[in-house]
Amino acid sequence: MDDLTNKDNYLSDKNIVVALSGGVDSVVLLHYLCKHYSGQVRAVHINHNLSMYCHQWQSFCESLCKKLEVDFTSVDISIENTSNIEGIARRKRYLSLTSELKADEILCTGHHQDDQAETLLLQLFRGSGVAGLSAMPKNKTIHGSQLYRPLLTISRKQITDYAIENHLDWVEDDSNKNINFRRNLLRLEFLPKLSAVFANLTTNIARSAKHQAEALK
After folding, report:
1. Which of 86, 134, 108, 97 is nearest to 26 (CA)?
2. According to the model, what pLDDT value does residue 133 have?
3. Which residues, other chains included, contact 49 with Cβ-Cβ below 8 Å and sequence gap of 6+?
């Protein structure tokens, strides 16, 4: 999928569960899926209980789903504030999301091309091999359930443009500005500077991840 105007044929016969955080990526994903697969979509929100705004985000997601006439479920999880809070939160989130799935449902997340580029760089800095540098697959099995990332070839700019064009509202996670998290440091400090020098940087990095994934086959 190169843009957000066409259907993703892979999802045509699927019962879809959207991981809805309330951020622009998941809001756009939900809107896109509801537009093309009406009646096949429901949403699950994971409340990490880490931010003072977490209940506001949950209420936002619930109101959005009510407006779109989408079934909504919210799941509370508890996470200790440790040095590896990102990794722990991610593992608990996916475990909770997949636990909510029915046997005939597929989980969709809003990961996009810029996320893919960031993931490859993080893996590179860890000294990962081909498997790590393949970054995020578009389709994978996790905890016995199917995970699919429809927006993986879509850029952050395309997502934001879609949200603005369709007059969508979303929430901003305050932790996204915390550069103590390595992904945020890449996103906010390093990638903008590199993008000013190297044209189509995130697209090219994401393409490299695809090449690494193909090398694994």
Report:
1. 108
2. 94
3. 76, 77, 78, 79
Return the biggest CA–CA distance within the chain.
47
Q: Using only C-alpha atoms, what is the Rg of the chain? A: 17
Q: Which residues contact 61 (CB under 8 A, 6 or more apart)?
A: 20, 21, 22, 43, 45, 72, 74
User: 51 φ, ψ to 5°?
Assistant: -110, 150
Evaluate whether 52 touches 89 at the Cβ level (below 8 Å). no
Task: Report the Cα 81 to chain-centroid distance in Å.
Answer: 22
Band (pLDDT 50/70/90 cuts) for residue 78 is: confident
Give the strands of the sheet with 15-19, arranged side by side.
71-76, 41-47, 15-19, 105-108, 145-148, 139-142
* φ and ψ of 176, to 5 deg: -65, -15
In 126-167, which residue ranges form alpha helices assigned H by DSSP? 130-133, 156-165
Q: For residue 157, count other CB atoms closer than 10 A to its CB.
A: 12
55-61 mean pLDDT: 97
Nearest CA-CA partner of 101 in 19, 31, 27: 19
CB atoms inside a 10 Å sphere around CB 161: 14
Q: Which of 159, 164, 188, 194 is nearest to 176 (CA)?
A: 188
